[in-house]
Each structure stands twice: as structure tokens, then as C-alpha cells.
């Protein structure tokens, strides 16, 4: 006698909401954040961007700016934190669970070390490689940063060239958005002089 199979759960949806940094889209799976995109001019664009980063197939998207009840409490709380960060409130997001299980040792090590870069500070690609235990792998670190599935939470915008040049940024808005984030955190960069460190503590 055959046993009935349990139906497979529906793929998790994407949730979108507006912020001072443009529209944001997030995907949560098994109580972990697995994809985030921001800086888009509409919820639909943000949702489309996050599909390329999603850890599991996407089953559609919901605008929780219009309908907050479409998402559970963890997603709503996280959305409020992102909106507050975008408006200038300091947040390191270190307590946010991120899905990094299905990735290589190198990639996970680099992403986890990047996550430790403090708000308002920066590291070069080479410095990040060394801190992660992979000295000399600056170019490979750049590739990992370009594929970061959860920017802001893993702050790849805080990784810069050895001279302070901003180099690339794969999110919406490119290098201009990277500059904007560093200015927001008072880690302003100049290609000639490098970072201008925060001189007063954030409140």
C-alpha cells in the first residue's frame, strides 16, 4: 500500500516596499533572508531584480507598502529597518539570518567577513581577502562582491579599491549608488585621497 506524499510547499514570494533608496525587494526562505535588491524605480522592477538572486524559485510578489498584512512579522520588521537605514539611521543588520549554506567555503568566508565591516568604515578588496584568510585573492573577492545576494545586509558597498577608488557596484545605480551609500554612512570616498573616516559617533 503506497503512502500519500506530502504536497511540496509553495515557493516563497518576494516582498517589495518603498524606501529613500528606491524600491526594495526581499525574499525570505525558511526564516532566512536569501535575496535582496534595492534602488529601483518601481516594485515590479525590484521584484524582477531579486528573482536573479533568489535562492529558490519565486511564486510572485506582494507590495507590503500597500498591504502590510501580506507578510509576516519578521518581514515587516525587517522592511522597517531597511527603510530606517535608508533614511539615515545606523544599523549593522548583524542579527538578520542570511541563507549562505549552499555556497563554497571561499565565497561564504568572504561574505561573512564582509558582513563584519563596521558601518562608516571600508576595506579594500585585498584587505578583505586577507581578513577572510585568502591573501592575494583580491580579484576573486571582487567577483564575490559582484554576486552578493543580500546587499546592505552584507555591505559590499564598503569594499573599495586599494587607492580608495570605488570601482564597480552591481546593484541598481552602479557606482553612483555605492557613493550614495558611503555618503549616507559618512564614509565618503575620493579616488585620490581614499576614505574620509567618520569623525563623530553616529547617534
Task: Write a compact overview of the structure shown.
The chain has 203 residues and is α/β, with parallel strands linked by helices.
Description:
The structure is a single chain. By secondary structure, the chain is α/β, with parallel strands linked by helices. The protein has 2 domains: 14-86; 105-195, Orthogonal Bundle (Arc Repressor Mutant, subunit A), CATH 1.10.10.10. It has helices spanning 43-51, 73-86, 105-115, 125-131, 138-146, 174-184; strands at residues 14-17, 23-29, 32-40, 61-63, 123-124, 159-160, 189-190, 194-195. The strands form 3 sheets. It has a 4-stranded mixed β-sheet, with helices on one face. Strands 5-6 form a two-stranded parallel sheet. Helix 4 (125-131) crosses helix 5 (138-146).
Q: What topology does this entry show?
A:
Blueprint: E1 14-17, E2 23-29, E3 32-40, H1 43-51, E4 61-63, H2 73-86, H3 105-115, E5 123-124, H4 125-131, H5 138-146, E6 159-160, H6 174-184, E7 189-190, E8 194-195
Parallel strand pairs: 1-4, 5-6
Antiparallel strand pairs: 1-2, 2-3, 7-8
CATH superfamily of the largest domain: Winged helix-like DNA-binding domain superfamily/Winged helix DNA-binding domain
- How many domains, as an integer? 2
Fold-level CATH name of the largest domain: Arc Repressor Mutant, subunit A
Q: Could you name the ranges where pLDDT drops below 50 across 5 or more consecutive residues?
A: 196-203
Main traits of this protein?
alpha/beta; Arc Repressor Mutant, subunit A; two-stranded parallel sheet; 6 helices; 30% helix; globular; disordered C terminus
Amino acid at each position: 500500500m503506497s503512502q500519500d506524499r506530502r504536497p511540496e510547499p509553495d515557493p516563497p514570494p518576494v516582498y517589495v516596499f518603498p524606501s529613500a533608496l528606491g524600491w526594495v525587494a526581499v525574499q525570505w526562505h525558511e526564516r532566512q533572508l536569501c535575496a535582496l535588491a534595492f534602488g529601483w524605480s518601481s516594485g515590479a522592477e525590484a521584484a524582477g531584480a531579486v528573482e536573479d538572486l533568489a535562492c529558490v524559485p519565486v511564486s510572485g510578489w506582494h507590495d507590503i507598502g500597500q498591504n502590510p498584512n501580506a507578510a509576516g512579522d519578521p518581514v515587516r520588521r525587517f522592511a522597517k529597518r531597511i527603510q530606517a537605514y535608508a533614511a539615515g539611521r545606523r544599523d549593522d543588520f548583524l542579527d538578520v539570518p542570511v541563507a549562505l549554506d549552499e555556497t563554497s567555503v571561499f565565497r561564504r568566508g568572504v561574505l561573512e567577513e564582509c558582513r563584519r565591516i563596521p558601518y562608516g568604515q571600508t576595506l579594500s578588496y585585498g584587505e578583505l581577502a586577507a581578513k577572510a584568510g585568502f591573501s592575494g585573492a583580491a580579484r576573486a573577492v571582487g567577483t564575490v562582491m559582484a554576486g552578493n545576494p543580500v546587499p546592505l545586509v552584507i555591505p559590499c558597498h564598503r569594499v573599495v579599491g586599494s587607492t580608495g577608488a570605488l570601482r564597480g557596484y552591481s546593484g541598481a545605480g552602479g557606482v553612483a549608488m555605492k557613493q550614495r551609500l558611503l555618503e549616507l554612512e559618512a564614509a565618503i570616498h575620493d579616488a585620490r585621497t581614499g576614505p574620509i573616516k567618520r569623525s563623530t559617533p553616529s547617534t
